[in-house]
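To close the section, here is one more complete example, presented without commentary so you can practise reading it yourself. The ligand is magnesium ion.
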Amino acid sequence: MVVDGFFGDTGKGKVVAYLALADKPELCVRTGAPNAGHTVVIGGEVHVLRTLPTCFVNPTSKLAVAPGALIKVDVFLSEVEKYGRGRSYVDFNTGVIEDRHVEAERRDEFLMKTVGSTGQGVGAAMVDRVLRRLRLAKDVEELRPYLADVPSMIHEARERGVVIEGTQGTFLSLYHGTYPYVTSRDVTASGVLSEAGVGPKAVDEVVLVFKAYVTRVGGGPLPGELPPEEAERRGWVERGAVTGRPRRAAPFNFELAKRAVLLNTPTQIALTKVDALFKDAAGKTRWQDLPPEARRWVEELEERLGVPVTLIGTGPEPWHMVDLRREKGRL
Ligand code: IMP
Ligand code: MG
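Output:
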């Protein structure tokens, strides 16, 4: 499973896409909801997925949506058409976001202004789910061809490889994040597993993803936040994949990373955008080709966090990756 150690947008989409291409898992399961956009760049073309797993890049992987996830029916159907024809599944119990949820959320000043919600109706739909009045995928006619028992699929595909894709990031977790500036679900490793319908002992590897700097969209604390001009100067300005809002930026934060390790119990760490800190790392795929300063930075981080750094992202495409899993005994 792959989870995000900061505030979302660390490059989970790219890491999951890399794993899909490298390992060719039989099944990939996406958790979360369409407030999160997971980005994959293939041949310079940018794809933002809000419902299906970014594993679509491997044509033999089945693509499933978790029972604890929420979908918008139109977004699901258009992503199936575009990325997952003939191999997409949604669990019977996946929740369905309706227009009224979007409207309710967008009327809510606290959510929209203070928290900085993406306004996708996710929180309002979660409220209805808790109150036991949310429609589920099994209640929607158009979803009938895609309905599946996703926990059973996970169980059956286990030996041949399953990737579970987390969403958002540790510090946006409803329970463990910077409440109330958080999303409406627990997005740490345990929450993601619960959403997918699989227990912790079934999981071989928990990959925790950190970006080489920290970004955050919406409200809430961001330790070490840089003035926008400084973030711009360092080339760290990004925009939200779903809302297009500029992301706030700060340097890599060791204390946050340490806390994320405590909350997720990872077996491996993926570090993305290392080329943003060390320009000469761009596009490299072998450890020995990384600049010595980059290698030192990675080694120091690995030592301080006590978890092997196995995947090092050096560019936007999935294959821009140094994969040390075999060397470090994780494959
Ligand atoms: P909501 O979950 O859309 O209500 O948003 C709540 C908070 O989580 C806001 O600060 C959003 O900016 C943030 N958020 C939600 N989804 C994402 C995401 O995928 N990436 C980054 N931030 C997100
Ligand atoms: Mg994103």
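Once you have examined the tokens, check your reading against these statements. The radius of gyration is 19 Å. Residues 145 and 175 are 35 Å apart (CA to CA).
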